[in-house]
Amino acid sequence: MSRRLVVILLALVAAATYWNALDGPFVWDDDTAITTNQSIHEIAESLNPPIETPVSGRPLVNLSLAVNYAWGGLEPRGYHVFNLLVHLTCALLLFGIVRRTLDRGRFFSGQAPVDAIALAAALLWLVHPLVSETIDYTTQRTESMMGLWFLLTLYSAIRSRDRRRHRGTSLSGSPAWTVMTVVACAAGMATKESMVVAPLAVVLYDVVFEFDSASEAVASRRVLYAGLAATWVELGLIMWRWPRSTVGGTLVSPLTYALNQAQMIVRYLSLTFWPRSLVVDYGLPRALHVGDVVPQGLLILALLAATVVALIRWPPAGFLAAMFFLTLAPTSSVVPIVSEVGAERRMYLPLAALSVLIVMLVARAIDRIGPPKGGHYRWSLYRWRLAAGAVAVAAAALAVRTGYRHRDFTSPLALWQSVVERRPQGRARFGYANQLMEASRFDEATAQLRLAVVDYPDARAGLGTALLAGGHFEEGIGVLDAFVSADPAQPNRGPARVLLAQGHRAIAERALSQQNAALAADEARKSVALDGANADAHNILGAALASQGNLSGAMAEFQAAVKINPQHPSAVNNLARARALTGLR
In the predicted model, is pLDDT for residue 559 greater than 60? Predict the structure, then answer.
């Protein structure tokens, strides 16, 4: 099969599958990673991404965003095109890895179309809905870019073992590929922390496919392995320079996180074969007990045992199964990621291993099927053509499902609505409610937020905001006050205090209109205490004091308001009237 034909075919399929994803807007973490990320405005600054953001500790991802910004500012289309090109390159690398591996070993009979088998694995992975998030959700290029460096590391390691004939002498492959392997691995470490397992993947590949034992592999490839191990030092320095509060910590124990992952891994596996009801946010880890995940745990243990047996009995299949668990382990084992219990994008590389494994098992079964009794001599050709047809049908079905998935990303409102409908949880309701408020649908937002606070306490900030916007000032203040009091030192309490000040100010204005000067003064003082730099609060307090006959106190507040905002019309007029009444100029 022509390599050029493979490139053209995969490119056309990628374009047809993802064309309607290219105009999607920025969503969720794109705000802090792109929209408000000032570091991407200068290429040189982009290598120092801001901390506590999705690009923290991922300088190469931030650099790619800076390149996008330089080309097209904040126009989302260019970012999605970049993501698609990265994914396409990953599919081509996967094809190259599988084809070269099959060329080296005798996994099939001589009649098996090795290139077509490799193409089938890459094609099914390319269009699978589980990987679509890396194109639809701009910031999640972190996963696909890491996947690109991971696959390039493995591909280069394979190429570094190529044997070439030169003037009749067998020479080892160019050292350039060894250097490329280490460079690609280092680039991956600067892209995402999950790259940590790449050196282990190279060693495992060598032991399974290249050498007869681990000791032989180490003796032959010690320079390469040392270079790969050095990239762990790089990753350690990056994690020290850009610590992430969402990883580890004491908020979620390793055991609790592992129990949650038992449920998530089984869900990932089910979505591999039936990719429906996909969601962008699975929420936070939940408190679980061992008894809650017994079926899932037993299934995972059985699959791990089968992987060990396969590594002994049929190492190629064992390698692919091991790659599924190995590439999933950094995010789905015992190291807690407190900000999310699971994410479908975590399946980017594990799904590649599963795609190859499934295609290999099916192809092996087809290869071993003999012709029927009295069968036609062209049976071998027919069976592979039938298999090609089945792959085309499966790829088309997956591509159509991926096309439907793109619709969820047409707007932030549509995205969060889809999550609430498919996997309702507090943070999803909070995100949905925020979009409802932007659409001025305050009653619907309030209803969602009342449900959200049950398992997502931070939604109280949103609920208080919605209640204030809906005119429910007293209840809104109560909710916001409880939110602030729960953890006053948290940075997100600052905006809540401003909202509290607005709520007290609104009650003060209402009280003034009802000629209740005492209540107005009391509420205005609370507003000033929370937001002393607000001219409106001082002006309202001044008006309340004037209504109580306290002209000196009122004048002081009017003066404070005018000092903050010399153009404040009401405060200027009120100050002039107070001076006239007291005979001052």
Answer: yes
Residue 319's Cβ-side half-sphere holds a number of Cα atoms within 13 Å equal to 18
Helices 198-205 and 141-159, axial angle in degrees (round to 10)? 30
pLDDT at 168: 38
- Angle at which helices 517-530 and 493-513 cross, to 10°: 160
Of 348, 364, 379, which one is at a domain's C-terminal end? 348
Inside any domain, residue 107 = no
Please check whether residues 436 and 519 belong to one and the same domain: yes
Which among 434, 456, 457, 458 has a CA at the least distance from the CA of 446? Answer: 434
Give yes or no for a contact between 413 and 439, defined as CB atoms under 8 angstroms apart: yes
Co-location of 338 and 433 in the same domain: no
**Number of structural domains the chain divides into:** 2
Range of the domain at 324: 253-348
Q: How far is CA 538 from CA 208, 264, 508, 517, 541, in A?
A: 75, 53, 11, 14, 5
Rounded Cα–Cα distance for residues 156 and 118 (Å): 17
């909710």: which residue's tokens? 479
Distance from CA of residue 145 to its chain's centroid? 12
Q: Quickly tell me which residue has 């850009």 as its tokens.
A: 242
Q: Rounded mean pLDDT of the chain? A: 90
Asked whether the beta carbons of 200 and 188 are under 8 A apart, the reply is no
Q: Is the distance from CB of 445 to CB of 420 less than 8 angstroms?
A: no
Q: What contacts 172, CB < 8 A, 6 or more positions away?
A: 161, 162, 163, 164
Last residue of a domain, one of 325, 348, 371: 348
Phi, psi of 518 (to 5 degrees): -65, -45
Q: Are 122 and 9 in contact (CB under 8 A)?
A: no
Backbone dihedral angles phi then psi of residue 163, each to the nearest 5 degrees: -105, 130
pTM: 0.88
Q: DSSP characters for 145-203?
A: HHHHHHHHHHHHHHHTT-EEEETTEEEEPPHHHHHHHHHHHHHHHTT-GGGGGHHHHHH
Tell me how far apart the alpha carbons of residues 418 and 277 are, in angstroms, rounded to a whole number. 8
Q: Give residue-wise pLDDT tens across range 384-396.
A: 788 889 999 999 9
Please determine, for residue 402, whether its predicted confidence score (pLDDT) is greater than 90: yes
Q: Tens of pLDDT along 277-324?
A: 999 999 999 999 999 999 999 999 999 999 999 999 999 999 999 999
